Amino acid sequence: QVQLVESGGGLVQPGGSLRLSCAASGFTLDYYGLGWFRQAPGKEREGVSYIGTSDGSTNYADSVKGRFTISRDNAKNTVYLQMNSLKPEDTGIYYCAAGPWATMNQYEYDYWGQGTQVTVSS
Fold first, then answer.
1. Which strand ranges, in their side-by-side order, compose the sheet holding 18-25?
2. Is the dihedral of CA 4, 11, 18, 8 positive or negative?
3. 44-68: b or e for each residue (b if 16 or more CB lie within 10 Å)?
4. Beta strands 3-7 and 111-112: pairing type?
């Protein structure tokens, strides 16, 4: 059974950090582009970051550049999102996704996790 499972979300104060993990089962992530997306209440889902396969190229939404870092560990079949200097506007449900190539376009991804809630509040 193909599955992506996110973890690591929670409640954090502004300025704090969280590390999200997304573990795959039923398939190997080695040959997939991987992305992180988020959906804030009342808003559409948006791309946060992605990481490619062969060269590990990365890209970030302007709103998170310099604060978030995406990485992948193919040996653990897991992708991560390190989030630092968190702001209230980072609040939302965070999803990981896997597809044939890495892109900010959510419609290019084939597999999705169930999401993990991140709340940034004092």
1. 3-7, 18-25, 78-83, 68-73
2. negative
3. eeebbbbbbbeeeebbbbeebeeeb
4. unpaired
Q: Would residue 8 be called left, alpha or beta, if left means φ above 0 and alpha means ψ between -120 and 50 degrees?
A: left
**Confidence bin at 70 (pLDDT 50/70/90):** very high
Measured between alpha carbons, how far is 6 from 117 in angstroms, rounded to an integer? 10
The mean predicted confidence, pLDDT, of the chain is: 95
> pLDDT band for position 92 (50/70/90)?
very high
Q: Is 6 exposed, middle or buried (0-12, 13-18, 19+ CB in 10 A)?
A: buried
CA distances 47 to 31, 62, 64, Å, are 20, 10, 10
Distance of CA 47 to the CA centre of its chain: 9
